[in-house]
Fold these 3 entries.
Entry 1:
Amino acid sequence: MAIEFTKYHGLGNDFILIDNRSSSVPVLTPEQAIKLCDRHFGIGADGVIFALPGENGTDYTMRIFNSDGSEPEMCGNGIRCLAGFLADLEGLATRDWGLGTGKESSQSPIPNPQSPITYRIHTLAGVITPQLKSDGQVKVDMGLPRLLAGEIPTNLASAEKKVINELLEVAGQTWKVTCVSMGNPHCITFVEDVAAISLESIGPQFEHHPAFPQRINTEFIQVVRRDYLKMRVWERGAGITLACGTGACASLVAGVLTGKCDRTATVELPGGPLQIEWSEIDQRVYMTGQAERVFSGKL
Ligand code: ZDP
């Protein structure tokens, strides 16, 4: 039987979305996902996302396979794409999407301004709540950041301690790193100039460092202003990507923990900007950004 898919991207972090609402088991295996993500022999994507029936009273469940077939707990850009995909599947997107520069908000599913569409999504990182706003942006309640070494996990500090400005040897250099989990693990390093980092060679050495038993997503951050960060990312299981939503959230949290930035900031990724807020009121992290449909097809 043919399986239909739709390709979406959030700031160039691209995903193959599968309508898996009629079964709670993904219709594709990790091996098939690896093939589909291949940019030369497949469709090309950073991951495959499945929209499954909700669990524990949620509207839907999200599962994702990275392009290497591993399964992360969460995916920030992916969940914005999933929200758009669900609105499309449910016929709630009131505007058609076109192909353009990818920057126009009019290409996102536009809900009725009076009633923004909100989904409660079950993920391996807990319940995450994306909301499709009337301006076409998707705002996601990403939940609470987890800061203890044991929760990340990393052995850079004892399990019940935070990991802030710890020294880590990678690629013959000593880096000052801060670790944050947004459900998935992140290691953040603040640098003078993100453009000067040889991500291709350094990234994998962070990802597979023995300090990180579940491997790690690695972000390099340049503080342009207290409310404006520039980020480059090496993703666990996917390598260099144009954007990483959980990484942008984790980086803002790391910036606040180290006193380098405000609780609300724009994070500029190679694929474009995300607005991130670590709320003083409820301590949750909110991420706002775009999600775009690119094309559909059949496998
Ligand atoms: O944690 C991981 O293994 C990541 N590669 C998952 C994907 C994260 C993502 N880029 C994001 O936006 O949070 C999708």
Note: Confidence is low (pLDDT under 50) at residues 95-107.
Entry 2:
Amino acid sequence: MNHFELQDGQLFCEGVPLAKIAEAVGSPVYVYSSATLERHYTVLRDALLAAGLKDPLIAFAVKANSNVAVLKTLANLGAGADVVSEGEIRRALAAGVAPERIVFSGVGKTEAEIAFALETGVAEINVESEPELRLIDQVGQRLGKRATVAIRVNPDVEAGGHAKISTGKAENKFGVSFAEAERLYANASNMAGLKPVGVACHIGSQITDLGPMEAAFRKMRGLVERLHAEGLHIERLDLGGGLGVPYFNQPEPPGPEEYARMVGRVTEGLGVQLAFEPGRVIAANAGVLVARVQHIHVRPEGRRFVVLDAAMNDLVRPAMYDAYHDIRPLNPRPGEPVVYDVVGPVCETGDTFTRDRALSPMEAGDLIAFMSAGAYGAAMASEYNSRPLVPEVLVRGDQWAVVRPRPTYAEMLERERPAPWL
Ligand code: LLP
């Protein structure tokens, strides 16, 4: 459920007509619903508690939506943060996330980032390889600290989803094998700069079948039990993120309740804290990208192009993953649906949001919303074609606030410097 609904023929976000925001801020613009973010977080938390989990750590994957106001909305409910860079640690801290609720993942953490994480006192650094384990140990020793680490395992399961976002197969770059994990965990226990506290996995994103997840989690349980049996201290099992969301044209993926029940079943009696790194399932359906129709361009052979003022630099998912986003007019016009190709103004054919989509009739000047754009939308936006970075707005009830303004052209150019020889 989300809070983007038609009221009197107008698309609203909670109590605010989206058109009102677009008029005031201009388009394109991302708009997020606080109530939806809060609902998705609490539904997941309550489902995990109902499944018998004690004190689960729900670390929102900052990469999905890194806006500090969004992070703060979730942090106020007790959410932690799953981060993959120093920049994301800084964002989580700026949003008031306690360091003990921050989990630091990623295959290529730099020495400086590791040092920053240790100074910050993050809950856990997820180690992705043996060289990284050694590096963290060195940094820990240099700083006179023992880094709390979890070993990220690659459970070697096929989780489906798009090839570019599947992470759990042995051929992917993430994590180590189970045998390696056991060896590294034991080694880490004897390294002066490390304190191993757990094991972690994450098998992919937009997963719509719980089968592969369950298979991976069962293997992870086995690993925890083996480490216990070896007399090693282990207190946390991090099961990553990855739960899919409905993008409108797909079969309904399993919901948080079903996921939580499965996790509860698989981990029953294990006696470790469970951690989760959900991104999409919390943020995707809590945000939309609003854009304006520039032209309707009809080609002689009959193809109808809706040319928007939003482009692949603002929402790259369709160009990058062939992702489907529902497109809804802010003020739907009456009449039979018309088949359109919806494109942006960027000079490449990849700047196509959809082809052959039946939509209600459109005219130049109309406003539309790309639905389910709250995850991996603004977070992946760029200034390609020197288009100013897309702004973001947060709605709460009948209030709304610009939480990242659109930069001016002067601000865009100010970031650059002349070379002395030019
Ligand atoms: N934890 C780790 C270690 C991850 O790599 C990811 C996502 C997550 C958690 C959060 O996964 P989620 O719950 O959001 O599925 N840009 C792509 C998605 C990339 C996902 C990368 N890793 C997209 O737009 O579909």
Note: The CA atoms of residues 259 and 372 lie 20 Å apart.
Entry 3:
Amino acid sequence: MSSKKVLKELKETVKYLQKQYKHIPQVGVVLGSGLSNFTEEIEIEKEVPYEKIPHFPVSTVEGHKSKMIFGRLSGKRVVAMAGRFHFYEGYDIGDVVFPIRVMKMLGVETLLLSNAAGSVNPSYKVGDLMIITDHISLFTPNPLIGKNIDEFGPRFPDMSEPYKRRLIQLAKDIASENKYDVKEGVYVAVTGPTFETKAEYKMILTLGADVVGMSTVQEAIVANHMGLEVFAMSVVTDIGIRDDHNIITHEEVLEAAKHAEPKLAFIFKELIAAI
Ligand code: HPA
């Protein structure tokens, strides 16, 4: 799609949402698979199902509630996406990141992302939380391919600090004050929808990564392009490298995410207060 058309659609979407909700959200939150209960923390002022939002794709994945939620949390106005769009669902990469651009145009300054991820770091366990300090996005299409949208940012964006050190430090402080053991590491993005083969998990470890997942980096890239501050956190839902026979299922991923969710929700909530 041409960049002019993208901008036109974005403006229409933003206009529609601004009619639904009159306030300016400061923080945007995207909730990963099995992590949507965070929305219960929000004092909800308005919910808009994706199917009602012009130009929004409709999420197809089980475990996603698929709506935009506007409200107050920790003294701030927030907009949360319960359910994101994944490349493996068949959407264009532009559709995957469309809501992030919408958030920016609504006034969001800080973006919090969460996801379920598989671990290749031998010291990680299922249920661990990991602050993403950096990512490797070389296996998924870059959402900025195509004519640059100059209104959003430069043709060649710097990616030396995709996840803001300031936010990482705040999250670490919150975790240590509450005696939560939180890891820090590198996330590799893959397209999915297959989980990785044993050889692929090994390769991911060799690349210098700690976890692997099917989301987040495309959103982080467009957010950085537009100058949003980004923070992202993974819940380790499965272990990629194990000696035993290792079958990974979506159900197991959702179950593990559900168990770890309260801690993640707590950190997000406190982080929003501290921003
Ligand atoms: N690989 C890729 N994506 C994932 C995984 C995994 O092991 N677990 C949750 N999302």
Note: Strands lie at 27-31, 43-49, 67-73, 76-82, 110-119, 129-136, 182-189, 211-213, 229-239.
